[in-house]
Amino acid sequence: MTIHTEHPFDTPEGDRDQVRRLRGRIGGTVSLWTSGLGIERAGLTVSSYLVATGDPARVVGLLHAESDLLDRLEETGTAVVALLGARDQRLADAFAGVMPAPGGPFRLTEWEQTEWGPRALSATTWMGVRLDPASRHDVGWSVLVEATVEHAEVGDDEAPLVHRRGRYQRPTA
């Protein structure tokens, strides 16, 4: 058995998409977007989003075009956008589809149903959003959606889960 210092299936350096590499260096706090009720719940880990303050406040997110979350969001018109902490890495990976979750990712933590969708009880900073009609725009490999923030709660911010350059990072300050 040989142990490699590099991933054996990595795309060779010269063949990597430069814009995607640039985007990976921007980094950001990982959020979990959830929507639906009961067995019709769906969720997706999202790090490409922007919150704009104002009256009303708005959130813009880039969602995977074939995600169950996008379908559920368009059906219900509402979602919970929760900021994840360092303790939520396993939850983030399960909702990103990169870690197995026997029985589904909703079994990994406790949830409460809000009027906007399910919220992980471990997520103390979150917002309830309503999708803006006709806000869907195909952008690259993603779908850009816009929503109005109808409710926001800010809890303790011990250690946010930050994603940069393809991996989780712990902020130093």
TrEMBL record:
**All copies of domain Flavin reductase like, residue ranges:** 23-170
The record, for Gene3D superfamilies, names: Electron Transport, Fmn-binding Protein, Chain A
Q: Which InterPro entries does this entry report, sorted A to Z?
A: Flavin_Rdtase-like_dom (IPR002563), Split_barrel_FMN-bd (IPR012349)
Q: Which Pfam families match?
A: Flavin_Reduct
Name used for this protein in its record: Flavin reductase like domain-containing protein
Q: Write down the superkingdom of origin.
A: Bacteria
Taxonomic lineage of the native organism:
Bacteria, Bacillati, Actinomycetota, Actinomycetes, Micrococcales
